[in-house]
């Protein structure tokens, strides 16, 4: 693990969902976040617990084996901003906003991932694994995170402290 980085991976407890339009009038998805820091390598890829033809074996930070399937669906260059909010249930949600240029490609790719699992890696470390509940285009969220873990992840991705 790099520089004391620890991540409580909750396979199955996390959910990724999103939409192509801002889903609510309260601005939840359009509130400002921070862009990825220069040089960070963020990838979101389909994942499975079983090896498939062409999949790449990997391990989560807690040592759980996983297989990365196909090329990344999302990379840092597609992310316009990321931020965290803690809900009334005490759990954090990460909100991602994607670039206008990436939106149509992400929408098409995410449609085929509904019901499947996606892994998020930062600089080669798989930091979360979640089920995709809906396709996304312009916006995506990851729910069910411990606030401290979400804050560390936002800071690792953006280089700036997360603001609740």
Q: List SSEs in N-to-C order.
A: EEEEEEHEEEH
Overall helicity = 10-25%
Report on the biggest sheet.
9 strands, mixed
Number of helices: 2
User: Compute the gyration radius: what is it?
Assistant: 15 Å
The best one-word shape is globular
Distance between the termini: 26 Å
Strand order of the largest sheet: 3-4-2-7-8-1-9-6-5
Number of strands: 9
Query: Residue ranges: pLDDT <50 for 5 or more in a row?
Result: 1-14, 18-25
What is the strand content?
35-45%
- Structural class by SSE content: mainly beta
Mean pLDDT: 83
Describe this structure in words.
The chain is mainly β. It has helices at residues 103-111, 147-158, and strands at 15-19, 42-48, 56-59, 65-75, 79-86, 92-98, 117-122, 125-132, 139-145. The protein has a 9-stranded mixed sheet with strand order 3-4-2-7-8-1-9-6-5. Residues 1-14 and 18-25 have low confidence and may be disordered.
Q: What's this, in brief?
A:
The protein is mainly beta. 13% of the residues lie in helices and 38% in strands.
Q: Topology of this structure?
A:
Layout: E1 15-19, E2 42-48, E3 56-59, E4 65-75, E5 79-86, E6 92-98, H1 103-111, E7 117-122, E8 125-132, E9 139-145, H2 147-158
Parallel strand pairs: 1-8
Antiparallel strand pairs: 1-9, 2-4, 2-7, 3-4, 5-6, 6-9, 7-8
Feature tags:
2 helices, 38% strand, globular, nine-stranded mixed beta sheet, mainly beta, 164 residues
